Amino acid sequence: MKSMLRNGLVIVLALAFVFAGTTMAMAEEEDRIVIGSGAEAPGLDTRAEVDIPAFERINLINEPLIVIENDLSLGPALAEDWEYSEDATELTFYLREGVEFHHGREFVADDVKYTIEWILDEDNDAANRDLYAAIEEVEIVNDYEVTLHLSEVNTFLINNIARFGIVPRDIGEELGDDYGNEPVGTGPYVFESWDRDDRMILEAHENYWGGTPNFDVVEFRAIPEDSARLLAFEAGEIDMYQGGVVPDELARLEDDPDVDVFRTAGTGYSYVGFDNEEGPMTDENLRKAVSYMVNREAIVEHILQGIGEVGQSQIVPTMPWFHSDLDFISYDPEKAHEYYQQSIAAEEDVELRIFTNENPVRMQIAEIMEYELSELGLDVEVVIEEWGAFLDRIYDTNDYEMFILGWGGQMDPDRASYRQFHSEGSANHVNYSNPEMDELLEEGRRTDPESDESIEIYHRVQEILNEDAPKVFLNYTEEVALVQPEFEGFEVHPYAANAWLSVPFLERAE
């Protein structure tokens, strides 16, 4: 029956693409590569967007000064080099000469100044503005050298510079708020058209400084449902995709000679967030009772089919700041019952809801938690919401007791910690507050990241989180990509936003 259903869906998808006849005709004339995406991009303004689907596309259009390489080191992009002053309060970038924007003008230092000042301007919609708050002034030294003057030492600022592309001043000022609908950059591909919720077309930048891309056209197709995206891939209608590979299908795909499967440890984690400010989950004993009752090992083994690792803290184990000696909270029903008996739930009825979106893995985790917590005596209601409504609830209304969500892009311990666990953190969606934590996170930014002191700071940060239990860290992510075997040279990137940086220079097998 499963096979019949799959075949039927393949036929439906194939017919749908056949009716898109004009596209097929164009494919015969152009060398086109088609990428499946798990979601539509909300916009394409590199200064304003924050999510992975947006930057999957943006990163082929707008280039940053420096780029996050596959090994998570920083590499040159529009800046050939950079250096800090001796006291680390100035950061100077030496820009690449002879780089041309898509509209034909040369990229210069003024474009860097314009982009950064736009982000810092509180009248603009820059969601990551807080990451750059240490920048006090942007000084143009000459057309190919620009210096950032900092109000305070922030040793991790350099990593965040790699998060946004450079926008040409003339186009940014001309388009205003419409820039995100028709962006212009220096990247290997030029924005051509966008049929929202269907496909986006990018064309090769023939004057790209890094060499003309191997493919004339890159087409992104938004296919939100994981199973449908896999069927489209197996029908040959998309050439590759990363993320959202159906766990139950992974073993079969790895044995299939007609599929190239790429895997690498990711830079994020999934978690259960508690409301640490209002309601029953403000009770630390209840948070710990729930935390010890979640069987993370079983989730990774049975639901994720071994994709990723058991979650322990906000810092991924591959980082030197990971506290490998800490006895992290793990599945222990006996301890869970002990904490439960000390919690408010042992004395009064509490109403608990766990929210998540329509992601099938998260829905399964929520259902398992509902059962596991019932073993404690807790009555939990699972509520599934559409993605937008779910995010509004978490980000805006705070109307929840628990929710399941993910966090990606942990390139350093500051990015993994400050915004999520500082009392004033812009991504502190669990409403967590601890004065010692605030002091540590502020000190971490002023400390040499290669020093023993930095290691000690973030070890203590993890100890506090283990003591306070504001979240349950479910699993560390693993990036999985599927690529048609006709392509050579692909490398899976641990940071999903950079998944397609190598695409312009892939080659078709002979």
UniProtKB/TrEMBL annotation:
Solute-binding protein family domain boundaries: 75-425
Tagged with keyword Protease: no
GO BP annotation list: peptide transport
Protein name: ABC transporter substrate-binding protein
Family, per entry: Belongs to the bacterial solute-binding protein 5 family.
Coiled-coil ranges (or none): none
PANTHER family xrefs: OLIGOPEPTIDE-BINDING PROTEIN APPA, PERIPLASMIC BINDING COMPONENT OF ABC TRANSPORTER
Keyword annotations of the record: Signal, Transport
InterPro entries xrefs: Peptide/Ni-bd, SBP_5, SBP_5_dom
MF terms in GO: peptide transmembrane transporter activity
Signal peptide residue numbers: 1-27
Listed transmembrane segments: none
A GO cellular component entry from the record: ATP-binding cassette (ABC) transporter complex
